[in-house]
Structure formats: C-alpha cells, structure tokens
Amino acid sequence: MASSVASSVAPNFSPDFDDVAAFDSVAPVFDSVAPAFDSAPAFDSFTLTLVQLCPTGSDKAANLQHAYEMVLKAAKSYSGTKPQVVVLPECFNSPYSFDQFPLYAENIGPYTPGKEFDVQASASDSIKMLSSAAKKAGVWLIGGSIPERDEETNKVYSTCTVYSPTGALVALHRKVHLCDIDIPGKIMFKVHPFGLALAAFWRSSYLQESETLTGGSTTNYFDTEFARIGLGICYDIRFPEIAMIAARQGCHAVVYPAAYNLTTGPLHWELLQRARAVDNQIFFSMCSPARDMTAEYHAWGHSMVVDPYGKVLVEADESEMIVHANIDPKTFDSARAGIPITKQRRFDVYADVSEACK
Fold first, then answer.
1. Over the stretch 334-351, which tens digit does the pLDDT of each residue have?
2. Of the listed 54, 60, 73, 90, which one is catalytic?
3. Positive or negative CA dihedral for 117, 120, 123, 126?
C-alpha cells in the first residue's frame, strides 16, 4: 500500500530551523526463574502498525509535517479500525548522517520515568509534534528516533520517545550501542584514516555514529493497558542482552526503530529479529525508513513484525507504506507452554543479565 499525502493538517507547532507440541524437559525446572510479570499489565490482543516513511530531507519542518500526516493516516488505515500502537522509523526528522546529527539535535528537556513531563515547555519541535499526533490519532505512538542534545552535557544521543493516546510522554530510550562497522568493499561505519576533514567527500561510505553520538546507559520499556513493550534502536538488536532483559522484565513485545542498509539488511535484518523473538519468546518488530536511491543513505526498508515462534507476521517492501500486525496473546502463551524455556534457565550455571537492571 503506497502512501499518499493525508488531508489532515498538523497543529501549529511551527518549526523554525536556521502448533508446537509440548515436551518434557530433561533439564531441571526452575519455576522461580520465570520472567517477572507480577507488575506487568495483563496481555491482551492489539494491532501494531509500522509507518515506513520515505527518507527525510534537509527540511526538518517538512519532515515533521509528513510524519504527522502519516501517523494520522496509519490510525485510520486498518480495515476501518484503529490500531493501538503506531511506530515511526529511526531518525525520521533528519538525514541519516553522522555529521548531520549535531545540526538537527534538539533539547527535549529533563525527563524522569514515572513523572509527568510538560511537553509544551520542551524546546523540541519534534517532541511537540509527536505528542500532538498521538493525541490527535488516539494511539500509543513510538516516535522513531531523533537526534537529542542533552542540555547539561551537550552530548548528542539517538533517542526514541513514546507517547500515550493523551499525548503524554511516557518513555524515553537512548540508543545504547552505536553503529561503528567496516565491511570491506561494502559499507563503512568507521573512522576514515584521513579523518573528519574529508567527511563530506566520504559520506556515502563513511558514517561512524560514535564520532558524534553518545551511547545511552539504560534499558527501557513502557506499559499500556494491553501489554508491556520494550524499546531499543537499530544496532541494539545485535546485542541480545537488551531484548533478553526486556523479556525478563515482563515485556510481551519489543519494538526497535531502525535503519539497516543494503549490505546489512539482506544479511541480518530478518535473521536478527527472528532470533530475538525465538530466544525470548516475545513479539519482535523493527520499523525502517523507506528506500530512496537518490538519498545519501540507502535504507533497507522491509519493516517487520515477528511472533514468538519466529514467524514473520507482516513485512513491508522497500517503498513508503503502512503495515499492520495483529498481536495475539494466544501465540505468546502457546510458545511458552510448548517450549517452556522461561522456566528452564540455569542461573545456577550462568548469570541472569537482567539482575543488574533491577
């Protein structure tokens, strides 16, 4: 389903920018080490909707306007019913380029989990737009990621924010793992030997996130009335601990805004999502930008939702489009009952990585 420009007009945020069978286990069963769902909401079915936006250009105001319109369109585009959760991709408000992140970075303001955040007092136009879109659409909105500048330290982060259907900011996740890789002859996310002076010349192959971004230091999730949902961003998926911690903390689903490329996408995009879903018996999803071969960065696309058995429930192609997946607790329960690994882990043999996050 290719997108078209929605007729809704954004509010005046006015950006101004200079059937698996059960079996008996041969290992000891440790009921005490099952995930801690005590405080998590009861898992109920919901619709997860991914908005695969076309790549952003240099005009931040236009990027925000388009994202706003697509969120409202996504909230109306599923068989006449409204999805409960809508997701935007990584870096939706700026070009995906290490040297551009500081230029587009916004000060969100001090956010403390569990405490009310005054969105209107924030200096961030992106935060105001996302809050407004969530409220207007009446959905939980996982707002992709934006470059964020910490007002106190001046450090820049890749940050995902989440909003309730009332527009309240309810969660914030800073990308923990920064993408510095070098696949010879393919793609380089690493320092070029001649340094930043030639950054513009080497931009097509040179993008080391750690050159301008700082990694976050927390794992994060948020609760809705129907599920607990964990968060990560793109490269975080290559580190299984993040999803493992989310599952141990009672998350039913985990969502990562992401932007894989034409080298890493074919190699690992689907593989990693299915692996994390099966490893942790959770629903797993990544939302990508659409592919634009005229842009500096060529995103893989293929936004996807995977169930706890590792089955791909929905997958976009590379174009701008909106895709929906029904998240069914019965699948979650069936996977965990038939293959009860959540009760069979041997923390007398190896460590529980989630302990440090309690």
1. 999 999 999 999 999 999
2. 90
3. positive
Angle between helices 60-74 and 125-137 (to 10 degrees): 20
Query: Given this model, what pLDDT does residue 3 score?
Result: 45
Active site residue 234: yes
* CB atoms inside a 10 Å sphere around CB 275: 17
For 166-213, what is each residue's pLDDT tens digit?
999 999 999 999 988 777 666 655 444 444 433 333 333 445 898 999
Asked if 287 and 52 touch (Cβ cutoff 8 Å), the reply is yes
Fold topology of 40-179+209-357: Nitrilase/N-carbamoyl-D-aminoacid amidohydrolase (3.60.110)
pTM for the model stands at 0.86
Sheet bearing 220-223, strands edge to edge: 220-223, 228-231, 253-257, 283-287, 304-306, 312-315
- The catalytically annotated residue of 106, 175, 179, 209 is 175
Active-site residue, from 54, 234, 251, 287: 234
Residue for token pair 């969105």: 119
175 is catalytic: yes
What is the phi-psi region of residue 79: left when phi exceeds 0, alpha when psi lies from -120 to 50, beta otherwise?
Answer: left
Short-list 49, 64, 55, 51, CA closest to 14: 64
Alpha helices in the chain (DSSP H): 60-74, 101-104, 125-137, 240-248, 264-280, 329-338
* CA 293 – CA 224 distance, rounded (Å): 37
Q: Find out whether 287 and 89 touch, Cβ atoms under 8 Å.
A: yes
Q: Strand, coil or helix: what is 335?
A: helix
What dihedral angle (degrees, nearest 10) is formed by the CA atoms of 321, 326, 332, 334?
-120
Q: How far apart are CA 235 and CA 231, in angstroms?
A: 12
Q: How far apart are CA 338 and CA 293, in angstroms?
A: 44
